[in-house]
Write a structure and sequence with these properties.
alpha+beta, Arc Repressor Mutant, subunit A, ADP-ribosylation fold, three-stranded antiparallel sheet, 6 helices, RNA_2'-PTrans_C, Ptrans_KptA/Tpt1
Length: 207
């Protein structure tokens, strides 16, 4: 569930993780899940189906999104959307100037405008059966607009374990790729986005 602490803002769970106060009730778990799924679909996969106009860089009017949510469920208010975004520890969405967009995970064609990565390496976790294909073809988007890379080995392992108990992790020379003109953007502290990663930039494989 989502609650709001007067001092620390919105959070998920029974008590504020910063001060252990119960806070004000905002959404129960069922409505949190329903609204979360609706927003994910609206901002990542099918905005036009919901009558939403999306800018090229993924932004949608938060008023229009609220109206679309209300048409479907009746109960959502704008503050529910703000609370869901503020309390999301994965940083999946951002709000600015009356607009909202998904930070990553798009299957629709968007052109995000995040800053280029300044780190040296990036990491990508896969099931072992995909290793040979990637070494031949490179890392390409699968059902998504961008390739999602990890900023650390630990995060790549965590992501890879969603699909395999023993994922293989590629270490990528991100600095060289960017120097050569590839677009590798910082979505948040854990996730990088790239159009593709040619196999030439794969440095090592951790099994």
């Amino acid at each position: 569930m989502i609650r709001r602490c007067e001092e620390h803002g919105c959070f998920r769970g029974e008590a504020c993780p910063d001060c252990d106060q119960e806070g004000q009730f905002i959404l129960d778990e069922e409505r949190e899940d329903r609204l979360g799924r609706f927003i994910a679909g609206a901002l990542r996969h099918f905005p036009a189906k919901l009558g939403l106009s999306m800018f090229e860089d993924g932004w949608v009017s938060i008023n229009a999104l609220t109206n679309a949510a209300t048409r479907k469920y009746k109960w959502p208010k704008k503050y529910h959307i703000y609370a869901l975004v503020e309390s999301d520890v994965k940083g999946r969405y951002e709000i600015s100037g009356g607009k909202i967009r998904a930070v990553y995970g798009h299957s629709i064609d968007v052109n995000l405008d995040y800053p280029l990565y300044e780190g040296e390496f990036a990491y990508y976790g896969v099931v072992p059966e995909e290793v040979d294909i990637i070494l031949e073809e490179g890392i390409l988007p699968v059902k998504q607009r961008y390739v999602h890379l990890s900023t650390t080995l630990e995060k790549a392992i965590e992501v890879g374990m969603i699909h395999s108990e023993n994922p293989s992790i590629f270490k990528i020379d991100a600095a060289a790729a960017i120097d050569d003109g590839l677009n590798i953007m910082v979505a948040n502290e854990d996730i990088l986005l790239a159009d593709e990663i040619p196999a030439d930039y794969i440095l090592e494989i951790y099994e």
